[in-house]
Amino acid sequence: MEINSTTKKLLFNTIRVDTVLEDGSEGSGTAFIVSHKHLNSTYVFIVTNRHLVENVQRGGLVFTQKQNGQPVFGKRFQLNIDDFTHAWYMHPDPDIDLALIPLRPLEQAANNQGVELYYHTIDSRLAPDASTLLSLDVLEEVFFIGYPSGVWDQVNLMPIFRRGTTATPIALEFEGRKEFLIDAAVFPGSSGSPVFVNQTDPLKMGRHTNKKLLFAGIVTAVFFREEANHLIPVPVPANNHGIVMGSEMIDLGLVIKAQVIVDLINIYISKWLD
User: What is the pTM of this model?
Assistant: First the structure.
């Protein structure tokens, strides 16, 4: 398969995160790669949820290997990280479910083992600014990529694409936070999935509808119905352990806006790299 479209490139943007928790249970989730230009330099980070990497005994990131500039489908390289939890930089606000780690040192560690990693990044400039957010309709088509309930094409190392719509206006701050809701099936393992909006470009309407891809944010929680008329948002777990069997997911996912990720990258750069 030739990697000749934006969505094909996004197959290699996400990274499967496999974890062993402190209680010995295993989990999985999603991380993704973001590039960010700052002054005259470009920095590359792996981004995921804080709750996915906290209290983890062991963790590994699964990549596809590269050969002659192309992906080798099914050729896996798992980069295990010592002291997994402390390797991540958590958002300084403990209520914001974000963590990141610079990619370059990890890539160098792979190169030292004779392995080249194949990946594509999300340019942080795809994050919509305030005026772009205001231009979005209440109901927009979204898609997100990850490993729901641990499901993936493990032979070819491919993630799963899922679709939905916005459920609250992205321009508003849901419950006063820089978040919004999507109407989509979010399951354990979807934690950390990047979310995109396919926005129709009215200036390029023609026979073939043109879409403008926007990086909207990251999946952080799913709503459960615990009892009649009682809904609660719960961080998307890395596995099904601890989910009360009487609970019911209602296909509403909570998404942290992309600008919060950009802000965290800038905080990290100003603290460690400037």
Answer: 0.90
CA distances from 197 to 63, 105, 174 (A): 25, 31, 17
Whose tokens are 């400039």? That residue is: 125
Please classify residue 239 by burial: count the beta carbons closer than 10 Å to its beta carbon, then call 0-12 exposed, 13-18 middle and 19+ buried.
middle
Q: Which tokens in the block code for residue 149?
A: 């309930």
Average pLDDT per run of 10 along the chain, which is 274 residues long?
A: 94 95 87 96 97 92 97 97 93 97 97 98 97 95 93 96 96 97 86 90 51 92 63 54 51 94 97 83
Contact predicate 217/126, CB 8 Å: no
